[in-house]
């Protein structure tokens, strides 16, 4: 099969090469998927997992890429829940060869059925942004119907997923971004929009959840908008703790929660 591999971390994306590799075999609880679309971000080449396995053994040359959509071609021993020729999408293990290849062996638990009316390229674009938005809103933000959400970057990869998921959950969504993003954010389900270049962020009033993808001064100012007991979820790291403590909120960062009372 054809695959893109990397051999030297210092080479960056310039070191990515198209080569011939053996087709992978399905291990226990694996499936093999013929990849129709995949996702890759250049920062993967700085992640230790791209270069070593879980025992920290060198695994280069490795195949990068983690998001994928495709069709199941074979099942490993003990695999359940999926079938051959089934359309799927999902997120590959960080420590195994990835999705920039014609085929990938992947644990079945890391895949989900892809509906027939969803294009493969759309399916491959969902896993990282979708999981980030879902976990932030519901696991960390504890969002409930009737609450209000300030979704920064509402027209971006993560922000657009936050906006749509919050709307479907019955929340009142206030999107933010640049002026050119207004209509896109409203189309995704935002009820209001804040132009961060021209509007006063503080005019939003109090909200229950802020989903921050920007950080810096915007994050600090957003903390002051949260109702007592509300939550600031950020994917770019915490701001100054003192500013957050004054709001009586909790700060959640990725999979960690930081009490600020």
Element pattern in H and E:
EEEHEEEEHHEHEHEEHEHEE
CATH class of the largest domain: Alpha Beta
CATH-derived architecture of the largest domain: 3-Layer(aba) Sandwich
Strand order of the biggest β-sheet? 10-9-8-11-12-13-14
How would you classify the helix and strand content by structural class? alpha/beta
Tally of helical segments:
7
Given as residue ranges, the uncertain stretches (5+ residues, pLDDT < 50) are 240-248, 253-261
The overall number of domains is 2
InterPro entries: ADH-like_C (IPR013149), ADH-like_N (IPR013154), ER (IPR020843), GroES-like_sf (IPR011032), NAD(P)-bd_dom_sf (IPR036291), YIM1/Zinc_Alcohol_DH_Fams (IPR050700)
Pfam families: ADH_N, ADH_zinc_N
Organism: Bradyrhizobium huanghuaihaiense
GO molecular function: oxidoreductase activity
Provide an overview of this structure.
The chain has 261 residues and is α/β, with parallel strands linked by helices. It folds into two domains: 2-118, Quinone Oxidoreductase, Chain A, domain 1 (Alpha-Beta Complex); 127-251, 3-Layer(aba) Sandwich (Rossmann fold). It has helices spanning 48-51, 120-125, 127-140, 157-168, 182-188, 216-223, 241-245; strands spanning 2-5, 17-20, 30-39, 67-75, 87-91, 103-107, 111-113, 148-151, 172-177, 192-195, 207-212, 226-234, 250-253, 256-258. Helix 4 links the parallel strand 8 and strand 9. The chain is elongated. The relative contact order is 0.10.
């Amino acid at each position: 099969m054809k695959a893109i591999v990397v051999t030297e971390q210092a080479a960056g994306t310039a070191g990515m090469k198209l080569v011939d590799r053996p087709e992978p075999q399905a291990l226990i609880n694996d499936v093999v998927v013929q990849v129709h679309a995949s996702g890759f971000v250049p920062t993967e080449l700085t992640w230790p997992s791209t270069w070593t396995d879980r025992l920290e053994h060198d695994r280069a040359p490795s195949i990068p890429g983690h998001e994928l959509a495709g069709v199941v071609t074979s099942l490993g021993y003990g695999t359940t829940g999926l079938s051959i020729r089934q359309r799927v999408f999902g997120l590959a293990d960080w420590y195994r060869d990835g999705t920039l290849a014609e085929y990938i062996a992947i644990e079945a638990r890391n895949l989900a059925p892809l509906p027939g009316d969803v294009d493969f390229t759309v399916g491959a674009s969902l896993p990282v942004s979708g999981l980030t938005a879902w976990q932030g809103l519901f696991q960390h933000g504890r969002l409930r119907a009737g609450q209000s959400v300030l979704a920064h970057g509402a027209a971006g990869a993560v922000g657009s997923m936050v906006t749509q998921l919050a709307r479907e959950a019955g929340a009142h969504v206030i999107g933010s971004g640049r002026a050119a993003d207004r209509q896109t954010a409203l189309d995704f389900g935002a009820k209001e929009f804040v132009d961060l270049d021209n509007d006063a962020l503080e005019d939003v009033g109090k909200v229950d959840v802020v989903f921050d993808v920007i950080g810096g001064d915007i994050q600090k100012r957003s903390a002051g908008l949260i109702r007592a007991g509300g939550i600031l979820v950020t994917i770019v790291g915490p701001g100054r703790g003192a500013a957050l403590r004054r709001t009586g909120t909790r700060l959640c960062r990725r999979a960690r929660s930081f009490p600020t009372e």
